[in-house]
Amino acid sequence: FLSSVSTTWHSNDDDVYRAPPIDRSILPTAPRAAREPNIDRSRLPKSPPYTAFLGNLPYDVTEESIKDFFRGLNISAVRLPREPTNPERLKGFGYAEFEDIDSLFQALSLNEESLGNRRIRVDVADQAQDKGERPLAWG
């Protein structure tokens, strides 16, 4: 009787052992999913424009490289402010505007990803037209 019990345990071990490959299929999204909880959906704008603030940009960044960074998302505009005293030089930050809220949300999950040689910051841009619709959660 004891040996049949140990066989039962053995087959359970096999089941446990077989489980990890199933988990592995979930892994590719895990790092991004692990970052998502710190994106508070209530901070997202309720209506267009859906704009992300981009910080720590490399100084040689172009609109094309930004669009490439967010490829797959519905990006409608990129704004890269330049130094007034030196129009050739970018200020190191910019804005990307998205056509829909989901694209903005997914863009935020790319926070800290590398663009060029820098880990760039992606955050919700301050909405100037937010006239007190919702309490600001920061500042």
From TrEMBL:
The keyword Electron transport does not apply. One of its GO terms (cellular component) is cytosol. The keyword DNA-binding does not apply. GO terms for molecular function: RNA binding; translation initiation factor activity. SMART domains: RRM (SM00360). Keywords: Acetylation, Initiation factor, Isopeptide bond, Phosphoprotein, Protein biosynthesis, RNA-binding, Ubl conjugation. Residues 50-127 form the RRM domain. Required for the binding of mRNA to ribosomes. Functions in close association with EIF4-F and EIF4-A. Binds near the 5'-terminal cap of mRNA in presence of EIF-4F and ATP. Promotes the ATPase activity and the ATP-dependent RNA unwinding activity of both EIF4-A and EIF4-F. Self-associates and interacts with EIF3 p170 subunit. This is Eukaryotic translation initiation factor 4B. The gene is Eif4b.
